[in-house]
Amino acid sequence: MNDSGPHRSAYWRKNLRTLASLLLIWFIVSFGCGILFADTLNQFKLGGYPLGFWFAQQGSIYAFIVLIFVYVIRMNKLDKEFDVNED
Amino acid sequence: MDILTWTYLLVGLSFALYIGIAIWTRAGSTKEFYVAGGGVSPLANGMATAADWMSAASFISMAGLISFSGYDGSVYLMGWTGGYVLLALLLAPYLRKFGKFTVPDFVGDRYYSNKARVVAVIAALFISFTYVAGQMRGVGIVFSRYLEVPIEWGVVIGMCIVFFYAVLGGMKGITYTQVAQYCVLIFAYMVPAIFISMQLTGNPVPQLGLGGNLEEGIPLLEKLDGVLSDLGFAEYTSGRKGMADMLMITLALMVGTAGLPHVIVRFFTVPKVKDARLSAGYALVFIAILYTTAPAVAAFGIYNAIQSTSEKNISELPTWVQTWQKTNLIQIEDKNGDQKVQYLADPISNELKIDKDIMVLASPEIAELPNWVVGLVAAGAMAAALSTAAGLLLVISTSVSRDLVKNFNPGISEKKELRIARLAAAGAVILAGYFGVNPPGFVAEVVAFAFGLAAASFFPVIILGIFSTKINKEGAITGMIAGLVFTILYISYFKFLHPELNTSEHWLWGISPEGIGSIGMLLNFACCYFVSLFTPAPPQSVQELIQEIRIPKGAGNAHDH
């Protein structure tokens, strides 16, 4: 097992990059589509939903779930790749 | 059978179930008492977290809040779910790896300081107490509405139940009871929602029904916008709050969620780091089932309420209106004497007052569902209130027995520590019950407090404790105190000292007391950073601790000092 400092910081950097991209999406779906651009998006319809309203009351929540599961899968892979997993 | 019999039967059965589980899973060691032995499966923990999280307010009041605020109500939906993303990505896995039992444990060890630990304990106790008082009140209200006993008796009965399984079972008992409570509460929430969605839109899935068409072929939301503007209200789907305030409230609720000690502690109960991540995902799925249904219940509720009362003859109102008039949750006053109900935005000519809790509590009757559904909703509301109260009481008892007593008397035996934990839980139940019976006048206001304080105190120091090796004890202590003091003063100023000034023109940058926790959080971050620049860096042992919690390997079980 490789347990050196550089090995660990490479793992940590990759982790931070994953976090940054997922949190960016987190910000866009909620604060972006749900609030900042909600009025603009409301001009479009999703079924009977104005789109901005849908993001604020439905879509952002679905996106949150997807984000966590993507994170789980990515991190399990990363843990194995760097041999820092628990099994 | 009539409604009252069904309610007694279903509430009684659910209580018997919780007590049975508590006896079956009672805690034998401090580890079982604090973190359920650290052996809970991610799925069960996710379900328990969901029940722990969804309080009487989520179950009874949230849909009604959205009914009357429309789009603006989205802050609760996004705020109380988006926090789980932060929890899963930024906190849960690392705190699990750290492997102690409480949030003050982490703060004390990472910032190598008992002072930091004590500040954290005080914050944890304050947050949990403000929250639990509201829950006990919720238990009392549900009892008094459905079982026709006085509120005081309702609180006492609720206290006895919580006392029994929280004190006896500790975290282990609470976890498995919460799994059962989740099932009860989600079933109770979904049954009326599905039927109402079917009746209004023909679609059994409420999440789709909300975006569906009414029988006449017009989208429900479009019709609702029209109906509300005709009566002088703002459109349902467009916002009324300032954008800065929307952003700040959402952020404060998200960050507050991720910083609530009773939520964080749930992730200490799973066996592995990867279980902590997965478990946060499951928790959000279980929470989202209710949180995506609530906006549908909200819109259906306000639509039905208006359709069945507005411009209708007072003598010909549906029976549910008459039933709930007795409880004063619906009030009708025929001001212009035309024998009809006028529901209007203008408070002077408006003749109808609807309490927000009606949207959920009366939903089975509005949908003309059989009596047993009413009993089911009562049992669901009880489950929501009890599960949250129990989780909070555990945080309180752990804070006392472990973070205070054990930390300053490391020599005490496990048996004695367990006894102190149980005593503290018992004391907390009694105190919470007292507040339930004699609520301080500001129960509704304290919610803003709990979230604002969690956002302004714990979240920044935990995040920085994991993601920075530079932040030291001086920074963390200053940050927590600055965040707490600022947030407490701002909320107290507008909520208690000068409620008459509580309008947007007096607020700092147009941010309401509900959203001020976000600013408190930024202040905390800034203090941590700048104070750490000018004071000695954390010692080598802490640097190693940080490196250690960043990788999952070697997590082992949650362990003692």
TrEMBL record, chain A:
Keywords: Membrane, Transmembrane, Transmembrane helix
Keyword Ribonucleoprotein listed: no
Transmembrane portions of the chain: 21-41, 53-73
Listed InterPro entries: Na_symporter_ssu
Domain called Sodium symporter small subunit: residue spans: 9-85
Domain of life: Bacteria
NCBIfam families: Na_symport_sm
Full protein name: Putative solute:sodium symporter small subunit
TrEMBL record, chain B:
Gene3D superfamilies in alphabetical order: Sodium/glucose cotransporter (1.20.1730.10)
Membrane topology according to the record: Multi-pass membrane protein
InterPro entries named in the record: Na/Glc_symporter_sf (IPR038377), Na/solute_symporter (IPR001734), Na/solute_symporter_CS (IPR018212), Na/solute_symporter_VC_2705 (IPR019899), Sodium:Solute_Symporter (IPR050277)
Main location class: membrane
The keyword Cell cycle appears for this protein: no
Any GO BP: carboxylic acid transport
Pfam families: SSF
Membrane-spanning parts: 6-24, 77-95, 116-133, 153-170, 182-200, 246-268, 280-303, 372-397, 418-436, 442-464, 476-496, 516-535
UniProt keyword annotations, A-Z: Cell membrane, Membrane, Transmembrane, Transmembrane helix, Transport
Entry's Gene Ontology molecular function annotations: transmembrane transporter activity
CDD domains attached to this UniProt entry: SLC5sbd_u4
GO CC field: plasma membrane
Cellular localisation: Membrane
Family as reported in the entry's similarity comment: Belongs to the sodium:solute symporter (SSF) (TC 2.A.21) family.
Protein's UniProt name: Cation/acetate symporter
